[in-house]
């Protein structure tokens, strides 16, 4: 019919994508057999190893190296006693299928709903942090400090926009490779996005600069205690083995990511219509820049400067605490709650305005907070269905007889699959290394290459896995998952080729 407008189909939101993935994973658990490896865990109170068999039966054994040798776990006993290996380690050659938990229609529906609630409960520390952060940002915005500060910054950025991407990606990448900076980067988006918009870029560029920094940085882990160190210990080697190759991978992968992002960003700056999010450009400016008028000069008061300094110090304390003191989200949330109370004295807002601004700011990030919890639900379904061990056992059997180059390249793809289903880097390390590391001896390669395949595989899938942090990051800026996939696909292929070259060279050397 003439004049009838074609209906525009939009890609599902972050919530819907996670629910779709949850349904698909839940469907898979009906077809993948349930199974478990026996595990070994150190009990410090008893000073004994507790062996948990697939049947659920537990056995206590002396916490000695001989016990570990008997179970063919090539890990130094001291690593269990000093807390380095704090998760149950899988015992090689002990996989057994178990009876699949009975569910039925109502049981399946119950699992579907319960896993989402449980995911939110399990993620409550991150959720509280996100809400408090949103509240703090709401207060700082209400003072006008953010607008005044951005106006001054926009003057400094002229002609130097590219350095934004270089500095942000490099610094966050350093955090990723050294101490596994990941969820903490959520805090940077509300601050950096307006700066990127003022530089002439789009919101997707801001996500790329931050998220590629954390994802590629964590993937190229050098001394990250939550992946490289714990995986090396679980594989029975020193984490410094293979360190030069990992450092070189970080330089190459981060370098490629920066160049890739700059090429896209500069194309957008010169021609905004080339942006993958051009259809929401005005909406993004209204949301993140508000009524900011760059042509109008405004006073940057001492009160506003002090508020921004206190806010910035919160990030400094957060980074120090995470890196040096082993803080997690409860401690980080406390830091920003303290910032909130300090702002009471510096913001200059009336009590009602202060509270309204905090509540409104927290409300703006409520969707992000819920996304964090929903993403956790997929892992809960996997754990309760006991299919993760089955997947790992299947792959370990398939790759054990391959030649060395093919073995390490296929193992990289195996870890991509395992990383999709098991999002915890430390959990995947302790579960898989006692099984996978001995296979290196069979094919005659260095165990350090197993660590590299693990790092690079489970790290790389983080770029696109809906069960990971990417949907949370995209929901911060309301960018669709389809647009991110369109942006990152070519980069993903380049990094895969780079990794396969590095792994092959590692075997041949």
From TrEMBL:
Keywords: Cell membrane, Membrane, Transmembrane, Transmembrane helix
Residue stretches spanning the membrane: 12-32, 126-143, 163-182, 188-211, 223-241, 247-265, 306-322, 328-349, 361-382, 402-421, 428-450, 456-475, 487-508
Pfam families to which the protein is assigned, alphabetical: DcuC
Record keyword S-adenosyl-L-methionine present: no
Membrane topology classification: Multi-pass membrane protein
Coiled-coil stretches noted in the UniProt entry, renumbered to this chain: none
InterPro entries, per the entry: C4_dicarb_anaerob_car-like (IPR018385), DASS-Related_Transporters (IPR051679)
GO cellular component, as recorded: plasma membrane
Localization in the cell: Cell membrane
Repeat is among the record's keywords: no
Domain of life: Bacteria
PANTHER family: ARGININE REPRESSOR (PTHR43652:SF6), BASIC AMINO ACID ANTIPORTER YFCC-RELATED (PTHR43652)
Protein name, per record: YfcC family protein
Organism: Companilactobacillus pabuli
């Amino acid at each position: 019919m003439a004049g009838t407008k074609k209906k525009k189909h939009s890609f599902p939101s972050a919530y819907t994508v996670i629910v779709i993935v949850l349904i698909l994973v839940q469907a898979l658990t009906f077809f993948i057999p349930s199974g478990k490896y026996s595990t070994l865990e150190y009990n410090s109170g008893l000073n004994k190893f507790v062996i948990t068999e697939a049947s659920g039966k537990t056995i206590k054994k002396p916490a000695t190296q001989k016990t570990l040798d008997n179970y063919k776990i090539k890990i130094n006993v001291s690593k269990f006693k000093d807390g380095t290996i704090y998760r149950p380690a899988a015992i090689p050659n002990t996989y057994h299928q178990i009876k699949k938990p009975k569910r039925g229609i109502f049981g399946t529906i119950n699992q579907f709903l319960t896993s989402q609630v449980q995911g939110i409960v399990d993620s409550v520390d991150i959720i509280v942090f996100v809400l408090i952060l949103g509240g703090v940002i709401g207060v700082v915005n209400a003072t006008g400090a953010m607008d005044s500060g951005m106006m001054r910054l926009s003057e400094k950025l002229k002609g130097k926009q590219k350095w934004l991407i270089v500095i942000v990606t490099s610094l966050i990448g350093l955090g990723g490779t050294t101490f596994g900076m990941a969820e903490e980067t959520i805090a940077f988006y509300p601050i950096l996005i307006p700066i990127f918009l003022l530089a002439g870029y789009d919101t997707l560029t801001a996500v790329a600069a931050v998220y590629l920094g954390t994802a590629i940085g964590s993937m190229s882990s050098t001394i990250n205690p939550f992946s490289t160190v714990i995986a090396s210990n679980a594989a029975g080697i020193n984490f410094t083995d293979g360190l030069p190759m990992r450092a070189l991978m970080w330089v190459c992968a981060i370098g490629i990511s920066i160049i890739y992002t700059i090429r896209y960003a500069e194309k957008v700056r010169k021609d905004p219509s080339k942006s993958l999010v051009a259809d929401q450009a005005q909406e993004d400016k209204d949301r993140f820049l508000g009524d900011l008028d760059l042509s109008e000069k405004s006073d940057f008061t001492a009160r506003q400067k002090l508020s921004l300094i206190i806010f910035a110090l919160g990030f400094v304390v957060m980074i120090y605490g995470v890196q040096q003191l082993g803080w997690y989200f409860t401690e980080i949330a406390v830091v920003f709650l303290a910032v909130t109370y300090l702002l009471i004295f510096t913001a200059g807002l009336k009590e009602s305005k202060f509270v309204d601004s905090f509540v409104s700011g927290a409300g703006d990030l409520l969707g992000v907070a819920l996304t964090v919890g929903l993403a956790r639900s997929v892992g809960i379904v996997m754990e309760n269905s006991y299919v993760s061990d089955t997947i790992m056992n299947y792959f370990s059997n398939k790759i054990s007889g391959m030649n060395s180059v093919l073995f390490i390249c296929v193992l990289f793809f195996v870890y991509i699959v395992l990383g999709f289903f098991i999002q915890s880097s430390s959990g995947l390390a302790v579960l898989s290394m006692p099984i996978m590391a001995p296979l290196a001896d069979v094919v005659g390669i260095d165990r350090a290459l197993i660590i590299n395949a693990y790092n690079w595989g489970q790290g790389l899938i983080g770029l696109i896995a809906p069960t990971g942090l990417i949907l949370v990051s995209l929901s911060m800026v309301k960018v669709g998952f389809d647009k991110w996939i369109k942006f990152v696909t070519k980069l993903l292929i380049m990094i895969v080729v780079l990794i396969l070259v590095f792994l092959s060279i590692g075997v041949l050397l």
